[in-house]
Amino acid sequence: MKSKKIFVFAGESSGDMHAASLIRELKNLIPEISITGIGGPEMLKENADLLYDLKQVNFIGFSSVIRNIKKIKSILNKCISEIKKNNPDAVILVDYPGFNLKLIKEIRKFYTGKIIYYISPQLWAWHKSRVKIIQKFVDLMLVVFPFEVEFYEKENVKAVFVGHPLIKRVDKFLDSNVKQVSDHTVISILPGSRKDEIERMLPVLVQTASLLKKEFDAEINFICSSNFHKNFYEEKISDKDFNIIYDENNSDLNYKTILNSDLVITKSGTSTMECALIGTPFCVVYKTGNLNYAIGKRLVDVEHIAMVNILLKRKAVKEFLQDEMTAENIFEEAKRIINDNEYSEKIRSGFTELREVLGKSDASLNAAKEIASLINNQNQVIE
User: Fold this and answer.
1) Which of 3, 109, 207, 325 has its CA at 20 to 30 Å from residue 377's CA atom?
2) Rounded to two decimals, what is the model's pTM?
3) What domains can be seen in the chain, in order of their start residue?
């Protein structure tokens, strides 16, 4: 097989993780492959040549984008220049629609190679009109939720369900880890991975933690993103009774903390899927700025924000958004999960249903096969 050049853009920590797994599988199929793009520490481990670290491109919300518009344009131009210079065999985009949809519109003016989207933006949930960009410029959507295939086929976009990449990752972890018994109630809190959301939500979460500490004499863990230095969190979480879990080496410490918890309070996003697949009851919180919320609310077309709830088509876990995200509300839900075994078991049964919906496919391997087939003009079929 001839050597191949691929450009990969992953703008978030979760995208970096999934992109790295995909790159690993691509290397097995195409040994002579070079990877350039934007990502983080996981892509670096796979010897990707990064133009920027994802920390430099990770903006959330309309107001944050406006504040950083010059920087974003500079990064966009750098990506365009790199693709024009190297003419890769494929450009692979991982979620992150605000940037990626702009990028593909610009590069299609000159780029004739394959554009592949791995892990679809949630266009079915909000700003559906942007599917027209994908319809016009993307060669293949590799989606991780079964219902997304039908969504794209209705829009005349080729889409293949490859499975969800967290299934294999979490199951590998669970194969070698069991929950540890503790004398204390263990509660873990995930405040997010972006500066704006952390600074907005963390004060409420610290207040909630104090209430839970007092009520249950609980062990409280704050699982913090390595996107920032540990002292960034230490300055904001001043109570020395709380543990700051900070895993910059990706050693499964975060997963172990979730597994050993009786309850998790997490912001919406990838962590909700991780908690569900690990099997720990949780509730979801999220709060953004008033401007972001007002704009977003007009564009959103789904009843729930947590993917577990979207896939199961019901509120399997509670969501506390915007004004409902108060310490008192979260505290009451946490008490119910901890004190009511029947209630917590009902939540866990939803996680079992979720696994049935997602199946057991190896997403990274399947996606790599599809990409190799496309760029080599082979009719390779996923087994």
Assistant:
1) 109
2) 0.88
3) 4-163+361-375 (3.40.50.2000), 171-358 (3.40.50.2000)
